[in-house]
Specification:
This protein is α/β, with parallel strands linked by helices. It is built from nine helices and twelve strands. Strand 9 and strand 10 form a beta hairpin.
Length: 291
């Protein structure tokens, strides 16, 4: 049965206590900015936590900054005027912002990690690249891997175009690589267990990460205790977010949201200011080497 988009269009925005987004990778070909914008237009949140790799400063180029990417920035900052609290936690692809950790401006803040209390339970939130040995000891290798990953995403887009032409379903090449390579599976398992063990030792009820592009919500039990591990996934492969409302967690999947998929996105800005150039100049300031 086909969805009734007329009926879907009448649905009110969902009101949420907290939304956590990570690994959006604005400024790259793999970023699904239009899909993210559709999702954001279906919700209102008291707090939005951007958990790292929001703007991909590793891959950033003046040659590629689509309007849809700027619309994400404008939409999120616009939520401040509507009373939302926005917390930007830095990741490895936007590590240039780490020198601004502790910055506060009204309801906006930049930090490297955050502990919040949700219905009496403590949640420890951070990006997660601190657990990545490649990031810690071989950043050049990590950057090379990021460039290769971006090329794989571009190739994936072309492959899916061909599959769609022949009436076939879409595939994710990067996800197939992750699922089939034993070392990748082991890395994900080790990442989750490391985060859980540290969170248990610190007495946290939740540990929330991004970084590995693997949406997850599960309870991890060790000899020393237990903790709820959550990962918000990404907006390159999985198109997911974490939502907290009325005491409960949920992983949001864009693929399951017919309402968001039905929304039309306005592609033109109403003002005459060159927002793209202003933003690019701002990012370039972060990219300048320290003197």
């Amino acid at each position: 049965m086909k969805p009734n988009f007329f009926a879907l269009g009448k649905r009110k925005k969902r009101e949420l206590d907290l939304v956590i987004l990570s690994d959006i990778h604005l400024g790259t070909y793999g970023c699904h900015a239009e899909e993210l914008l559709r999702y954001l237009k279906t919700i209102t949140a008291k707090t939005i936590i951007l958990n790292g790799d929001i703007i991909d400063m590793w891959q950033f180029s003046k040659r590629y900054w689509p309007k849809s990417h700027m619309q994400i920035i404008k939409h999120i900052t616009g939520q401040l005027a509507k009373g939302a609290k926005i917390v930007y936690l830095t990741g490895n692809h936007d590590e240039m912002l780490r020198k601004f950790a502790g910055f506060r401006l009204g309801s906006f803040q930049i930090d490297n990690k955050k502990v919040v209390t949700l219905d009496g339970k403590k949640a420890w939130i951070f990006h997660g690249d601190v657990f990545d040995v490649t990031m810690k000891y071989s950043k050049w290798l990590a950057r090379l891997g990021a460039a290769g990953y971006d090329m794989l995403i571009v190739l994936n887009t072309f492959v899916n175009f061909i599959l769609n032409f022949f009436g076939k379903g879409k595939i994710s090449l990067s996800k197939r690589v992750k699922d089939s390579v034993k070392s990748a599976v082991k890395f994900i398992n080790d990442f989750e267990m490391t985060a859980a063990e540290i969170a248990i030792s610190k007495g946290y009820d939740y540990v929330i990460c991004g970084h590995i592009h693997q949406p997850e919500m599960k309870r991890i039990v060790t000899e020393k205790g237990e903790v709820m591990y959550l990962n918000s996934g990404d907006w390159v492969e999985n198109l997911t977010a974490l939502e907290f409302n009325r005491g409960g967690w949920k992983i949001y999947y864009y693929a399951d949201d017919l309402f968001a998929q039905s929304l039309k996105i306005q592609r033109r800005f109403k003002n005459n200011l060159d927002n793209d150039e202003i933003f690019k100049d701002l990012v370039n300031e972060f990219l300048k080497p320290k003197t």
